[in-house]
Fold Histidine--tRNA ligase, chloroplastic.
Amino acid sequence: MQSLRGTKDILPEEITSWQDIYYKVQQLFNKYNYNEIRTPIFEYTDLFFRSIGSDTDIINREMYSFKDKGERNITLRPEGTASIARAYITNKMHKHCKVNRLWYLGPMFRYERPQKGRQRQFHQLGIECIGSSSPLADTEIIRIADKILQTFYLDHYSIEINSLGNLEERAMYREKLKEYLNPYEKDLDEDSKKRLVNNPLRILDSKNLQVKEILSSAPRLTTFLKSKSMNHFYKVCEHLAYLNIPYVINEKLVRGLDYYNYTAFEIKTDQLGAQETICGGGRYDKLIEQLGGPATPSVGWAIGIERLLMLVKDKPYCSSKQLNIYIIAQGAESQKQAWNIIKIIEECNINFHLDLTEYSLTKKLGQANLLNAQVCFIIAEEEIKNNYITAKWLKNSSQQRIEFPYLKAYINAHKYLLNKKVAQ
Ligand code: ATP
Ligand code: MG
């Protein structure tokens, strides 16, 4: 049996990294008063059509859409923002407070060509700051993205930022860009030719060298931005500079989704080959209104967890999980006594593994080693008869006899030797 193309099992040996990410970001978001939200992984297809925009890669070719048995058109969510905007409206979250700070982590689905760092089911960690038009909100979320990457000891990344202006300014620019590119149509690559008709701004993003050359004298988006848009952009840049967060302005940065206005940004690294973007985000002031909610300026980003994991793989925080106590009980009486031992270990808040094999003692010890256990608690006939247990430390093979009534004191006295990370 094979898993579906572009999907991956996350195996127990990898799961500690996932849990670490969840644990660390949860702590961080608590600090900044961002609250976790979990929305369904499928929604009405229409939600994504109305939010992401009809001439985008996601809508044109990447959606997992189907009809359910009730003939509803449904799509597995390709990204988080549309669902959160929907949830914000459905649950009338604006009534609760003016600014809602939210975060999420979960699977997203896009029908793409699978390659390193690109899957069909992948995971995004994202935040949305809903209800503020202040450039401080844009700065706050970029600062948090930067903090997260630093929490995982990442370097070698750069923050690229641009302003897309408001929707009218962008529409005007779109026409001018189209006018400029039309005479070059035959020189464009196939993708750009298609985009020229439906979504010419996306051509700015092209990696094709000839297209890049043509674009070098194309009209610039900034020249179409009026003072309100420019002021917002300058303020964000000013605050980032004040915070000493390095950034570069990339005038060609346009995002693959239609709902952005004003700020758009990406965080890129040179360590992931073609899949160089780890984080993408921006401001979406009209989205919630467009979906039928109140006018609610908002800004957010999403980080691809698989790409983040590829970057943090060799970083020091990624310690593998250690097992503390391996319990070996031989014989019917010993097996009952094992439950009493477990009770004491639980009280000490230490992790343990009860041996369930039919192996010989030597082979059982082999299993304990395999699981990276620190110490084996062994109970057999002799131990039961004299009410003690044998503790065998695997790293140095030292062995001790512990009278059963002193077991708790013994564990507590040795806690410093046991892995604190697991015991947290
Ligand atoms: P790309 O240009 O790589 O296709 P995108 O612009 O489609 O990215 P966004 O929609 O901005 O990506 O999603 C935010 C982040 O989610 C990306 O920067 C990336 O880290 C991650 N991501 C997007 N698509 C995938 C995928 N198919 N597999 C793994 N991660 C992905
Ligand atoms: Mg994409």
About this structure: Residues 420-424 have pLDDT under 50 and may be disordered. The domain at 12-165+231-312 is CATH 3.30.930.10 (BirA Bifunctional Protein; domain 2). Residues 57, 256 surround magnesium ion (ligand 2) (CB under 6 Å).
